[in-house]
Specification:
Porin; eleven-stranded antiparallel beta sheet; 1 helix; 11 strands; about 65% strand
Length: about 210
């Protein structure tokens, strides 16, 4: 954990040291996560998507023509539904929901088109678990034995629409966890060896602080 914290500190320090090197854009966004876990599951169980919110801020720094470094501190609701196949029932039955709420710190590279309207992005997200819960029926309990940190890779694309001084944007993003949330086998942990994954649809507004030189 100490190595993770140190890595985040170093990356953040390097990011802010670039603020004086190029045009800076500030913004905010909100949207939806469609997330689930993937990995070990019981013979009659499967992981299904669970909807949640994603809200945060944007700090973009222009590195060169059409290339930006983006830091996006945010709050992200993730998790999964666990569906079980029940004999005599046609559709799988959802009986368990797992919710994982993170403070996330994605560090992304954005590459824009010539007209600055379209862009692609990719990068790494480090997530600090704020709280986790498991919901069975009407009962909600704290989720035990989940690591405090998660790391995921992001890929996505978006469209930017100028509306005067600011711009609004809409973005679709896929995230895939890189580490198991636990290393425990199925018979000893309610969350066995699984990783996070999911899609995000986000919308927001950006305010450039300086004149872009295309």
């Amino acid at each position: 954990m100490k190595k993770t914290i140190l890595s985040i500190f170093i990356v953040t320090l390097l990011f802010f040291s670039t603020l004086s090197m190029g045009q800076v854009t500030l913004g905010a966004f909100g949207g939806l996560n469609s997330s689930k876990l993937s990995g070990d599951a019981t013979a009659n169980g499967s992981y299904m998507s669970l909807m949640g919110g994603n809200f945060g801020a944007i700090i973009d720094v222009k590195l060169s023509k059409g290339i930006y470094l983006s830091l996006q501190p945010s709050y992200s609701q993730e998790g999964t539904r666990v569906s079980y196949t029940v004999k005599g029932v046609y559709e799988p039955v959802d009986s368990v929901k797992i919710r994982l709420n993170y403070f996330s710190l994605p560090l992304l590279v954005k590459i824009t088109s010539t007209n600055q309207r379209f862009y692609a992005l990719s990068g790494i997200e480090t997530g600090l678990l704020l709280d986790g819960s498991i919901i069975v029926g009407d009962e909600k309990e704290e989720l035990p034995d989940v690591p405090q940190w998660n790391i995921a890779v992001h890929f996505g694309a978006g469209i930017r629409i100028p509306v005067g001084f600011p711009s609004i944007f809409v973005e679709l993003r896929y995230s895939q966890g890189l580490v198991n949330l636990t290393h425990e086998p199925l018979n000893t942990n309610i969350i066995p060896r699984v990783k996070t994954s999911g899609f995000k649809i986000l919308a927001g507004v950006e305010f450039p602080l300086g004149k872009a030189k295309n």
